[in-house]
Amino acid sequence: MSLAVKTRSQALEYSLLHNVKAAGRKIGLYMGLPIYEAIVDDYGRRYVFSGVAPRDSTGELDPHALQKGEFIVRPGLAYRLARFV
Question: Which domain holds residue 39?
Answer without folding.
Answer: 3-84
